[in-house]
UniProtKB/TrEMBL annotation:
Phylogenetic classification of the source organism: Bacteria, Bacillati, Actinomycetota, Actinomycetes, Micrococcales
Domain XdhC- CoxI: 15-80
XdhC Rossmann domain boundaries: 242-388
UniProt biased composition (Polar residues): 429-438
UniProt xrefs under InterPro entries: MoCofactor_Util/Proc (IPR052698), XdhC_CoxI (IPR003777), XdhC_Rossmann_dom (IPR027051)
One Pfam assignment: XdhC_C
Chain residue ranges for the region called Disordered: 409-438
Protein's UniProt name: XdhC/CoxI family protein
Length: 438
C-alpha cells in the first residue's frame, strides 16, 4: 500500500471520508507485473486509485472490492493463467497472484490513519502493518498500524500492534501478553528494519487449545479461533548507500549504473584534481579525502548501515589496504574490490599482515563483478551491478569473478584490443593540487 501514499492525499474519496476497499497483492510467483505489497483502492462510488496488473485482473478485483464493501467481510482472490478457459480472468504473462481485499473506511483506524502520511516525501521512512487472516474483518480491530520510523520500532512496546493482534480481547496475563508481542517482534522487526515487504504468520496467542476470552460485555467463555494470525508488512527506508572509492573511468561508469538500481551514490577519492571532474556530477555526493578516514567518519556518524555497499575501484594498495581493513569490520551488505587475480592475492596478503581475520576476508568480493567477459569501464560497471543484484537476491545463475580462475579480461573475437578511454592528463595547475602521499 506504500505505492499509493504519494497520490492518496489528492484522491477525492479519501479526502471526503468515503468508504473504500483496498486490494493488495500478498503473494506472487512466476512472471507478474507488480510485486507483493502493491495495492489498489476502490471507493464505494467505483473510483479507483492504483493498479495491480496493468489491466489483466483489475475488473475482477473491482467487482470483488464492491462486494466486500457491501458485506463488510474480506476476500482472498487467486489469479493465474488458464490454458483451458480462454475467457478466464488471469495473467496472460503466465504468473500467479493472490490478492487480499478488505474494507477500509475513513475512520482513524482506517484511511484516517494514513492520510496524515500521504503525499509526503517518497523517501521518508514509513511502514504499514496490516492483518489479513480471517480475523482481520473484525470491526473492533484496527485496519492498519502505521510505523513512522521502521528502523527504531519496538514491537514488544507497541499498544497499536497489540490491538491489531487482538490481544485486548484475550484473558492474558502480563507475561503471556509480552511473549505474544516478542514472538511478533522476532519476525516483524527484520522486515521493518530491512525496508522489505513480506508476510508474517504467528501462532494464536492463546495456544492450540484456545483460551477463554471476554465477550462484548466482558463475559467469559468465548473461545477464540486457533488459526494463525497473518500480517502483511510493508516497509520503506531511505535509499541504501553505495560508496564508490576511486575517481577513475570505472568509477565514472559505475556511478550512474548504481543510481539506476536505486542507490544513493557517493564518490570518494583522495585526489582533488580527480574527484572534482564534471563526469562525477551524477553522484549524490562527491567527497575528497583519504578513503579509510572518510569511511570511518561516516560510520562514526551513523551514516553506514546493514544495507550499505562499498565498491573499491582505486586499485592502489596505499588506498585499498587501510580502506578494506576498515570496511571489513563494518556490518554492511557488500564489500568488493577491483583488480586482477595477482593484485587480489597481494591485497589478501596485505590485509592479513594488517591483522584482518581470515573469516573477515571471506566477506570480500574480489575481484569484484560477475564473469561476463567485461572489458570496458561501462561493461565492468554492468558486471559489478550484476553481482550486486545477485548478492542482494541470492541468485546464483552467474559466477562471481572471485570464484573463477584464469584471466579476467580476454580479447574479443578477432583478437582486436577494445578501445578503452584513459584518465586525461593533468595540467600543471591540477598536478599542484595532488596531495603528498605520506
Amino acid at each position: 500500500m506504500l505505492n499509493l501514499m504519494p497520490s492518496l492525499a489528492g484522491w477525492r474519496p479519501a479526502a471526503s471520508g468515503e468508504r473504500c476497499a483496498v486490494a493488495t497483492i500478498i503473494t506472487a510467483s512466476g512472471s507478474v507485473p507488480r510485486p507483493p505489497g502493491t495495492s489498489m483502492l476502490v471507493s464505494e462510488s467505483g473510483e479507483i486509485l492504483g493498479s495491480l496488473s496493468g489491466g489483466c485482473v483489475e475488473g475482477a478485483v473491482v467487482a470483488s472490492a464492491l462486494e466486500v464493501m457491501a458485506d463488510g467481510g474480506t476476500r482472498l482472490e487467486a489469479f493465474g493463467f488458464s490454458s483451458e478457459d480462454a475467457f478466464a480472468v488471469g495473467l496472460t504473462c503466465g504468473g500467479e497472484l493472490e490478492v487480499h481485499i478488505q474494507p477500509l473506511d475513513g475512520s482513524a483506524a482506517g484511511l484516517g490513519a494514513l492520510r496524515k502520511f500521504a503525499g509526503g516525501d517518497p523517501e521518508r521512512p514509513l511502514a504499514l502493518i496490516r492483518r489479513i487472516d480471517a480475523g482481520s474483518g473484525k470491526t473492533e480491530l484496527p485496519a492498519v498500524v502505521v510505523v513512522p520510523d521502521p528502523g527504531s520500532f519496538r514491537a514488544a512496546e507497541s499498544a497499536e500492534l497489540a490491538s491489531l493482534l487482538g490481544l485486548d480481547a484475550l484473558n492474558l496475563d502480563a507475561e503471556a501478553w509480552r511473549e505474544a508481542l516478542l514472538a511478533a517482534a522476532a519476525q516483524l522487526e527484520p522486515l521493518l528494519r530491512g525496508g522489505r515487504t513480506g508476510l508474517v504468520r504467528l501462532a494464536p496467542a492463546q495456544g492450540c487449545s484456545g483460551v477463554p476470552a471476554r465477550g462484548a460485555q466482558g463475559t467469559e467463555g468465548v473461545v477464540q479461533p486457533t488459526e494463525p494470525v497473518t500480517l502483511l508488512v510493508e516497509s520503506r527506508l531511505p535509499q541504501a548507500r553505495l560508496l564508490v572509492f576511486g575517481a577513475n573511468d570505472f568509477g565514472a561508469a559505475l556511478v550512474p549504473a548504481a543510481k539506476l538500481l536505486g542507490y544513493r551514490v557517493t564518490l570518494c577519492d583522495a585526489r582533488p584534481a580527480f574527484s572534482a571532474q564534471e563526469r562525477f556530477a551524477a553522484a549524490d555526493e562527491v567527497a575528497t579525502g583519504w578513503p579509510h578516514r572518510y569511511l570511518a567518519a561516516e560510520a562514526a556518524a551513523g551514516r553506514i548501515d546493514s544495507r550499505t555497499v562499498i565498491c573499491v575501484l582505486t586499485h592502489d594498495p596505499k588506498f585499498d589496504i587501510p580502506l578494506l581493513q576498515e570496511a571489513l569490520e563494518l556490518d554492511i551488505a557488500f564489500v568488493g574490490a577491483m583488480g586482477s587475480r595477482r593484485s587480489h592475492r597481494q591485497r589478501i596478503d596485505g590485509l592479513l599482515e594488517a591483522g584482518v581475520a581470515p573469516e573477515r576476508l571471506a566477506r570480500l568480493h574480489s575481484p569484484i563483478g560477475l564473469d561476463l567477459g567485461a572489458v570496458t569501464p561501462a561493461e565492468v560497471a554492468v558486471s559489478i551491478t550484476a553481482e550486486l543484484i545477485a548478492a542482494r537476491t541470492g541468485a546464483a545463475a552467474c559466477i562471481p569473478l572471485r570464484d573463477g580462475s584464469g584471466p579476467i579480461h580476454s580479447l574479443p573475437a578477432g583478437g582486436t584490443e577494445p578501445a578503452i578511454s584513459h584518465q586525461p592528463a593533468l595540467n600543471k595547475e591540477q598536478a599542484s593540487q595532488e596531495i603528498a602521499w605520506t
